[in-house]
Amino acid sequence: MKKGDNSLILVASVLLGLVLTLSRVPTTSTQQGASAQRAQELLASVSRLEEENSALQRRVGDVQSQLMDYESSMQNTDEMAAQIAKMLENTRMEAGLVALTGPGVVVTIDHLILPASGQVVKYVQDEDLLTVINELNAAGAEAIAINGERLVATSEVRTAGNYINVNTHAQSAPFTITAIGDPQTLNAAMHLYGGVVETLSQVAAISVQSKDAVHVPAYQGVISYEYAQVES
Amino acid sequence: MNMPKSNPKFGVRVVGLILGIAVGIVGAFALREYQDRQTQSSDVVAALLQREQELTSRNAFLRTEVSQLQSRVQAMEVESVRADQDTVFTLQELERARLLSGQKDMHGPGVEVILNDAPRENIRAGDDINWYLVHDVDVLRVVNLLRSAGAECISINGERLLSNSRIRCGGPTIHVKDRPLTPPFVIRAIGDARSLSDALTAVSPDGGMSEMDLLRFYGIQASVSMVEELVVPRYIGEFLFRYAKAEETVQSVNR
After folding, report:
1. What is the ipTM of this complex?
2. What is the pTM of this model?
3. B22 conformational bin, left if phi > 0, alpha if psi -120 to 50, beta if neither
């Protein structure tokens, strides 16, 4: 017998053992191809939906209590007028038409400049600012302004020549972004590992400061609806 | 194989045979164990999928409820004008503030942009899969371009965008606010259809590719079409001001 025969027998017997056992032990798997990654993705999605769910439940409660307030004031015109005035005040705040103060952060972004020559190596791009804003929003910012321009639903942040337009007004560096929210959360979101500050400091001069009080002005522009109409 | 019993190698072979079978048996159990674990994780996946579905339909129901309650609130406001003409002006202002804060369903001309991950067959082996997926930053850029082209209101997969809508990647979905959206991403914007469309299809100011071409360059399926009439629904979620306070001076000026 050759030497190879020995290993052949070994391989054959391993296979035999496998086959024998597999045929005896009952199958419990249906091989759905499920992976831990899929479970993790779903878990993230479910937790988002839970958050949305509790927010919606609170929202239902708020609107219901508003309705009850109205119902109890309906007989009294003065009271009803006061109720509506209060509603207007809240809605103006939601629309960005009211100046706000509160704790938050101030993020400053400037061109990347060579200290020796003062030469600009890299100009701040609109996308840099967009990234910062999106990150601040993700961290629960309640109101944001760039160089004093309040961001509303229609606000753009768009490079136009040497400037960046915000609410159609040209802004130049340094860009000061003020955001109201939990300073710790906002600051931490900026400093995530591989996050905004780490990425942007390669291409810009960026700094983040937590503040006890920051000021976010009201939206000053005029939004005219030329195309959009209220759906009845 | 007729071997003499005296062959000392015979014993070795028998031991080898038994060992081999033993290894096979152990291996088989290990395999079953692995498969069981897969089953367990597929149980978890099934449970999560069910929870996801429940929550999605529950949230859809809640959104309808909010919107119905809001209609009743607004009907009562209109009703009150009959009793007190002085509130007419306040109501007009209120209507405007609701428009600006995205609390009205809107309709009008505009564009419909559809972004989708690259089809699976286009992905070549060895390529970074990330190139082929729609990312939060892609959506952010498109939305920003639409805003600069004068979009009056925008929604993504039916979720109205506000100033503080966060658009985040999370696995295969993109979250707008906390609502997980899956591709294809349908972005609807009301405004001058031609300007909105041009903003995405025109060569960039620095002479580079248009946004649509850039997205397609990365393998993403991207299309933009001008639409005569489309609907952008209102924002249903809550507005949270836990930290921000109105500045008194400004408030009194506004009154």
Report:
1. 0.78
2. 0.78
3. alpha
